[in-house]
Amino acid sequence: MSTDQPTVLIVEDELAQREVLAYNLEADGFRVLKAENGEEGLLVVDEQMPDVIVLDWMMPNLSGIEVCRRLKSRTETRSIPIIMLSARSEEVDKVRGLETGADDYVVKPYSVIELVARVRTQLRRSRPSAVGLRLEYGDIVLDAETHRVSRSDQMLKLGPTEFRLLSTFMEKPGRVWSREQLLDRVWGRDIYVDTRTVDVHIGRLRKALTQFGGDDPVRTVRGAGYALG
Questions:
Q1: Contacts of 67 (CB under 8 A, 6+ apart)
Q2: Are 215 and 172 in contact (CB under 8 A)?
Q3: Would strands 148-151 and 154-156 be described as parallel, antiparallel, or unpaired?
Q4: What is the value of pTM for the model shown?
Q5: Which residue from 34, 87, 93, 204 could staple onto 108, CB 3.0 to 4.6 Å apart?
Q6: Topology (CATH) of 130-228
Q7: In this predicted model, what pLDDT tens digit does every residue of 199-215 receive, in sequence order?
């Protein structure tokens, strides 16, 4: 499975709405995860770390507002964009949703096409390479659309795995990624790969990035993983 495919988690207790939304997002090229309540939604986030979350406000036991509050209060999940769905159209409710940390607020009944477009908008923030944007870090330029990488205007030769590793690093410079997180993002959860494979490909990426000179921008963080810069 290619992990270039961006992942959306739908947390919605109404089966029909959940399935319609999942169908349309999958048709638009997204990998979709589903949860039917807030507790399950939090578990899925811990296991799979989606790129965008579509979250229903009104759910039994754990409300969408509470799920949003918990996710935005944790460092590791704070940056995941959340689109809140609600039948509440009052301005005060919208303000409350956004104050809790939601990145967007959509009132039911909504247009599925519009919601998919809003998911794409949030994705540009969380995973710019997944929507074909150009990323820059120092003298390194990665063009996600043409799959080309250059450094100081010289084209670099990168294999597909090294390209995905670099785009992951360039989306969040400075962030430390563990080997397990890199395996999930670059190789995919459905594929068994030894964590030492990550080290091998990091070595190849370093070699590619320094083939025309320049410092090695990939940092090894002892006991934690790797980071760019």
A1: 11, 38, 41, 42, 55
A2: no
A3: antiparallel
A4: 0.71
A5: 87
A6: Arc Repressor Mutant, subunit A (1.10.10)
A7: 999 999 999 999 998 99
